[in-house]
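Objective 1b: paired records.
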Amino acid sequence: MEIETTRFGRMEVNEQRIIVFPKGLLGFPEHTKFALIQTGEENYFFWLQSLDEPTLAFVVTDPGIFFKDFEFSLKEETQQALQMTDMGFAQVFVICNKVGEWLTGNLQGPLVINAQNRIGEQIVLNDKKWTTRQPLLRLGAEMALAKSA
């Protein structure tokens, strides 16, 4: 599928990289279809590019890379909305933002995607352990990855 972006121009995206968020994302309920764009083989960050709006794109990452203890339970209603029959197919991303000299992640509002059918939803966690601007890494500094247990 060919899409238009302001960052990368016109580009071809594999259909397997298209994610549908039936409820949209927080603040963007009318935008429901996005492409997950990987910009490099060993890059831990992706672009979540709107298919409807070339100027709308978010940097996202897997929070488990930075916080090995990041976990939460998915409500039954969310599992049903995602048609999630096997939690092993749940992929989690967080939207990143630059705040001062830090790259932060919205760990309070992760994106959960069913990798089997590519349906996603942004959820809001009640756990105050994580914030909407959780520091991930200092820009210009080397990235410290979470170690496997």
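Objective 1b, second protein:
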Amino acid sequence: MRSVGKTDTGNKRSSNQDSIYASDLPVGPLPNLYIVADGMGGHRAGDKASRMAIDITVDFVKRSSLENPVAILKRAIIYANNQIYKAATQDPDLAGMGTTMVAACAEDDKLYVANVGDSRFYAVSEDIRQITMDHSLVEELIRNGELERKKGRNHPERNIITKALGSKDEVIPDFFEIDIKPEERYLLCSDGLSNMVENDEIRDIVVDCEKLSDVADALIERANYYGGADNISVIILAK
């Protein structure tokens, strides 16, 4: 896989609580690894939670003796959650910190994707498909038939997360497996992009920009054009 990752503070925040990691080269037993984490819990705590999530996950993967990508990612994310939760309970300055995470690995023409929270993974070609499912109050309302999806973007409680790393002593990530298609590009992003830019517009940018670096720049530029209300992180992948 080829990748380009970029993160931006946006227009309204004073600090960037997002963290990203992108390696096209092997990480331990995994042939590659891509992660976006969006921290929460105040200035210092949010920064620390997202950085811890990535550092601990990557270190765990590097030391893993397992071979199955799903098993590796699952154990790494569970371990990262435990460490973040422990840090949050031991340091009053970090109380309440947590982070979303979306992670992906490509192996043998398959993409293995894990997520906790509302950072997303999209597959993009002539159409755009959200592969992950948000762990959020709005998504629960939509799934229960209590809210129309088109109204979810402007819902006053759209930022309420129902699952995050570090918020509880145990968390189980969701996993998804998709076939890699030569005509598709793949996007990991924080909600600083998905809350600001409609899916169809994301699709147009991903398809229209030839270079992956141009895709990343254009997505962040568009989110900032619409207000840049949050930190914005993207990793774009292609075969």
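The chain has one domain: 2-238. The domain at 2-238 is CATH 3.60.40.10 (Phosphatase 2c; domain 1).
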